[in-house]
Specification:
Layout (H helix, E strand, L loop, with lengths): L4 E7 L3 E7 L5 E8 L3 E3 L3 E4 L1 H13 L8 E8 L1 E7 L9 E2 L7 H11 L1 H8 L8 H11 L1 H6 L2 E5 H10 L3 E3 H4 L5 E2 L4 E2 L2 H7 L10 E3 L3 E5 L2 H7 L6 E4 L3 H8 L9 E4 L3 E7 L10 E4 L6 E7 L4 H9 L5 H10 L6 E3 L17 E3 L7 H23 L7 E4 L6 H11 L3 E4 L5 H14 L11 E5 L3 H21 L7
Parallel strand pairs: 1-6, 6-15, 10-13, 16-22, 22-23
Antiparallel strand pairs: 1-2, 2-3, 4-5, 5-8, 7-9, 11-12, 14-15, 16-17, 17-19, 18-19, 20-21, 23-24
Length: 487
């Protein structure tokens, strides 16, 4: 039996998760190590690339002596960051994170000069102050000494850690597709004339080499091996960025397999043969396989609607409140879950939440039920708008899975079996490893047979009632849209 292990790293938004995994994707042991984020006025949001590497070292040291059996390293992580290194590979500036908005004026200027529609056509995404072209232009103008010292530009946590492991400056196609300077169909950086049109052609020679997610980008150096306690000379795989790795690890790497994340915010993720539409709020990522794309359709507020309702009603026991709400009959109250506007399947920052159909007989439990239903109707709206083929089943992840009653509601409203999988919290690690196995040829495709914890089948009688109620839900937003933003 082969006892060689994989070391899989996820350089996340608040810390590193490290795992030793076997060839079947089983988790042997995991460890975490945090790092801090610096925020300041003017939209500044930064982290320290050296802190990323220190967290990798710390997490690996908590994996135990089995890390000496590691035969390959695989790295995924946060995307759309600006990492600037000198010729020796040392950071010359804190990492400018994806959520940093200091470059909003540069973004507006580029859009006015270059045209946002042309950028959307090339990148398949809407771009703003979070785009790397805007941040590069900001550095060029406001920190010219930093630009002068920068010889290597990287765009995510995995890029930076792979560089520390191998000395190779690389970026996976999924992460590259978040930058705003990547032709997503041709799968290459903008050429010099395009970069010149944006005003950042001086950075062209400093961009990393683009690789398909999962590709081998080098081997572990002696220094890195000594720091992590793993063998030197073993291959390093640059996996897709975290959203891509999670999509693969949730079983949605092949066409027609969708999954839902339902936490405070939420999204629907799946793979497709064509890019998504920014008009529907879809963010399109490059799939590791050429000619494929991954769609992430974000709902700005999912479970956050329930948090709001619990706060308004001064309720504290989520499980009891959900059960009390869903044990009663289906009512005529409909809730629009747009507390903070919406991103998908339409983009409307002015949209707001609303109850429709309140009568004197409606009580707290009825309103909470309407909120729970409204959240799921929001997911149904996204799936109806974006999935070309009907679903056979749907994997559900996130905090909503803690309530069996809410999981059943997802099944009843969506009309498909809802599947909960074991180890959903490790989806990014599992997907990162899967991408590497496909890249090395030990797997033919991105199909995953995931261990199922439970399956919720639709109640057909309830499903028919919710079909009628969904008609009201779909009619409500267009009717109320003219009123949003008037107050």
């Amino acid at each position: 039996m082969n006892d060689t292990l994989w070391l899989v790293l996820d350089v996340g938004s608040s810390g590193v998760k490290a795992a030793l995994m076997d060839d079947g994707g089983g988790i042997v042991i995991t460890a975490d190590a945090p790092y801090s984020t610096f925020s300041a006025e003017g939209g500044v949001v930064e982290q320290d690339a050296d802190a990323w590497w220190k967290a990798v070292i710390d997490a690996c040291h908590h994996l135990g002596h089995d890390r000496a059996k590691v035969g390959a390293v695989n790295v995924t992580g946060q995307m759309q960051d600006l990492v600037m290194l000198d010729a020796a590979g040392a950071p010359v500036h804190p990492v400018i994170l994806y959520s940093d908005t200091r470059a909003k004026h540069e973004a507006a200027e580029i859009h006015a000069r270059f045209g946002p529609h042309r950028l959307r056509a090339l990148t398949a995404n809407s771009q703003g102050a979070d785009a790397l072209y805007a941040k590069l232009l900001w550095v060029q103008r406001h920190e010219p000494d930093v630009m002068m010292r920068t010889q290597i530009v990287l765009f995510g946590g995995a890029d930076a850690v792979c560089y520390r492991l191998t000395g190779a400056a690389t970026c996976d196609t999924t992460t590259a597709s978040t930058t705003g300077i990547f032709d997503i169909r041709a799968r290459r950086w903008f050429d010099s004339p395009l970069l010149a049109a944006v005003g950042i052609e001086a950075w062209a020679s400093r961009l990393p080499t683009v690789v398909a997610g999962g590709a081998v980008v080098g081997t572990v150096s002696a220094d890195a091996a000594a720091a992590l306690g793993i063998p030197a000379g073993i291959p390093v795989h640059h996996a897709p960025g975290d959203a891509g790795a999670t999509t693969l690890g949730a079983g949605s790497g092949e066409i027609g397999r969708a999954y839902v994340y339902a936490g405070t915010s939420g999204w629907v993720g799946f793979s497709a043969e064509t890019p998504g539409s920014p008009d529907h709020g879809v963010f399109t990522l490059a799939h590791p396989r050429a000619g494929r794309y991954m769609h992430a359709a974000p709902l700005l507020t999912a479970g956050g609607n329930l948090d709001w309702a619990m706060s308004v009603f001064d309720a504290h026991d989520y499980a009891a409140s959900i059960d009390a709400a869903l044990n009663g009959p289906i009512t005529g109250v409909t809730f629009l879950p747009y507390l903070n506007g919406e991103r998908a399947p339409f983009v409307d920052p002015l949209a707001r939440a609303a109850f429709i159909g309140i009568s004197p007989s409606v009580g707290r439990a009825d309103l909470i039920r309407a909120v729970l239903e409204g959240v799921v109707f929001g997911y149904r709206h996204v799936l109806d708008a974006l999935m070309a083929e009907p679903l056979e089943r749907l994997i559900l992840t996130g905090g909503a899975t803690r309530s069996g009653a809410w999981c059943q509601l997802f099944a009843d409203i969506l009309g498909v079996p809802i599947v909960l999988i074991d180890g959903a919290e490790h989806a990014s690690l599992r997907g990162a490893m899967l991408s590497s196995q496909v890249a090395r040829g030990s797997r033919a495709d991105y199909t995953l047979s995931l261990p199922e914890r439970s399956v919720y089948a639709p109640d057909r009688q309830h499903a028919a009632q919710y079909d009628r109620k969904y008609t009201v839900y779909r009619a409500a937003y267009p009717a109320l849209k003219p009123l949003f933003g008037m107050g």
